[in-house]
Amino acid sequence: MENSQNLRQKPIADRDRSLVLLAVLLALFLAALDQTIVSTALPRIVTDLQGIKRYAWVATAYLITSTAFAPIYGKLADTYSRKKIGTSAVLLFLLGSILCGLSGEFGDLPIIGDGMNQLVLFRGIQGAGGGGIFAMTFIIIASLYPPAERGRYQGFVGAVWGIASVLGPLMGGLLTDHAGNLIPGIEGWRWVFYVNIPFGVIALWFMKNHMPSLKPPGKPTRPDFLTAILLISGLIPLVLALQIDKQKYPWIPSMIAQESSSPVWHSWLTSALMVITLLLLALFIKRSRQSKSPVLDFRLFENRVFRAANLASFFYGASFMSVVIFLPLFLVNVLEVSATRAGIVLIPFSFGISLAATLSGQLVSRYGHYRLQIFCGGLIFLFSSLLLAQMDSNTSYFAVMFYTTLCGIGVGPSLPLLTLAIQNAIDVRLIGQATSASQFFRQIGSAMGAAVMGTVLATTLGISFSTLELPASLENERTESIRNIAATGGSGLGERIREIYLNLGNELEATQSDSESLRRLSSHPDMPDEFSAQILEIRDSPGDNLSFVAENLRSYGVNASIQLNNNIKDGFTAATRRIYSLTFIILILASLATLRIPEIPLRKTHDNAQHNET
Predict the structure, then answer these.
(1) What distance in Å separates the CA atoms of residue 145 and residue 593, rounded to the nearest whole number?
(2) Are 232 and 128 in contact, with CB atoms under 8 Å apart?
């Protein structure tokens, strides 16, 4: 009876179908934009809200909730009207955007606290809506088009994602610097969040007026919300463990520096979070296997396409982050380009993603053969990661741009086609859960990839920088200096060394052969031994000799500064090569997983019709 009712629903007109597609892509654009637009506004935000120590939490809160809630939306989409779930996700995202913009406007709030705490909490709300938009985009497209046609439209998702990732940092900077003049009294950075409102309202209007209810096939069963609670409770400590600073909270307690002044519990936090994750996810699995309507049906894992495609998504997600996060570090610290130029080099990467995702979607709709396209794209990404692993200080800026273009072309086909392969292979009554699971595994792969590669970066830099020859005044703070170098690329450290020897040289020249002053300078902790000996030898000599030694001491500082900067470059080069060598290995695993995806002909019937036939 329910199936007959689904089939008797008024068919959606082509015009309405196009308008609904436009609306969900607009909502996706806003959610994807929000992952990057905040990055360039954050320095101004933490200054205004006085929350520099909670800087990273603004991004982490969004990532935690968007990842944890994605599977929940999939189950809801398999149970209730997809129109209602999709519009609810957009509304939640807009509510979070408004609250983020209002953070700190009314001072400290009860329980929540200051403006920075408010922003972190409201970014979590925004992420809960954004995670729903990511999942519901593919689910709604699956409801509008049969698999044989779906590829060309899901290809647009990759294009939208690529465009948003390029425009995000640019728009964030422009709004932060100039939007404050729009309405007096409203800081520019608040428009980073308020800009979502008009476009979100437009998306909602199109969804309300042109989208049918899109009820799922089959008889709906009320979700087991306990499994949802267990899943969310298990994922939050997992993502948190992956995101926190491994310099302060190492993977293994014994890895923390002996001379560190951090509390003992810092060394155990990551391990404790992982243990909590394992316990809660074990309870989730046990409950899900016993439940009649879990939030994630474990029958999906019996499907070979679902298993292999999600494994490939996981590896592609991890590889993707190696380009987005770590390539700018190489550009700034080794090639010494500006932060702006480092960001510009990612534009070809996004262009490659947009081009490849759109083209692969068109080709699969015309010819089929999604596995071949994903595999060929993976080989291109594999080859480009090998090129990235060979980079050093002699690599040109435009060569890096070419490498990133290849990376984008390589990863592009996987964005729409892995999800399409899963949707085409599974029971249509579980398409929401299967689709959201695909997004979930990609996001978890991204988080784990960023965490592991971040550990490789920190470990390599720590080893490289532990042998740096620093003046004694800096040696006393070596542990903190190494941490700062790893975090900032050694920005300003070379200048500090140059200034130390410049001041010593100037002080030496100003002594005018005063015996006591010369003795004191010769025993200065920062004075190199060779210069100490020279100063003692010429205590009774004319001032010209002191001037000569002082000039040599200043030159020594310049050379030491240059040598230090070269050593820092070498450290970042070594770290970059290790990261992309690891990316190369991960992409081999992604390619092997892709080859295990069975090639199933794309259905030409709509999901509801297919369900009725079966």
Answers:
(1) 27
(2) no
pLDDT in tens, 520-555: 777 777 778 777 777 777 665 655 577 777 788 788
pLDDT over 50 (residue 612): no
Q: What is the DSSP string of 245-301?
A: -TTTS-SSGGGS-TT--S-TTHHHHHHHHHHHHHHHHHHHHHHHHH-SS-SS-GGGG
- Asked whether 256 and 266 are in contact (CB, 8 A), the reply is yes
Q: Where would I find the H helices in 466-539?
A: 472-475, 478-488, 493-509, 515-522, 529-537
Element (H, E) at 592: helix 543-595
388-to-199, 346, 405, 592 alpha-carbon distances in Å: 38, 14, 12, 21
Q: Mention every residue, 6+ apart, whose C-beta is less than 8 A from residue 227.
A: 284, 287, 288, 291, 294, 295, 296
Cα atoms in the Cβ-side hemisphere of radius 13 Å centred on 194: 15
- Mean pLDDT, range 124-130, rounded to an integer: 91
Transcribe 530-571 into DSSP letters: HHHHHHHHTTTS-HHHHHHHHHHHHHHHHHHHHHHHHHHHHH
Token couple for 134: 């990511």
HSE, CB side, 13 Å, CA atoms: give it for residue 291. Answer: 21
270-285 pLDDT, tens digit each: 888 899 999 999 999 9
Name the helix (H) or strand (E) containing 66: helix 57-77
| Spatial contact of 315 and 255, defined as CB atoms under 8 Å apart | no
- Please, is 14 exposed, middle or buried when counting C-beta atoms within 10 Å of its C-beta (0-12, 13-18, 19+)? exposed
First and final C-alpha spacing in the chain: 14
Query: Please, are residues 134 and 31 in contact by the beta-carbon 8 Å criterion?
Result: yes
Side chain identity, residue 319: S
Cβ–Cβ < 8 Å for 189, 44 = yes
> What is the 3 state secondary structure string of 379-442?
HHHHHHHHHHCCCCCCCCHHHHHHHHHHHHHHHCCHHHHHHHHHHHHCCHHHHHHHHHHHHHHH
Pairwise CA distance, residues 229 & 558, whole Å: 59
How far apart (Å, rounded) are the C-alpha atoms in residues 265 and 278?
20
**Residue given tokens 């994807």 in the structure block:** 32
What CA–CA distance (Å, rounded) separates 435 from 431? Answer: 6
Is this model's pTM higher than 0.85 or not?
no
Alpha-carbon gap, residue 50 to 32, rounded angstroms: 27
User: Tell me, what's the pLDDT at 91?
Assistant: 94
Q: 112 Cβ partners below 8 Å, 6+ apart?
A: 118, 121
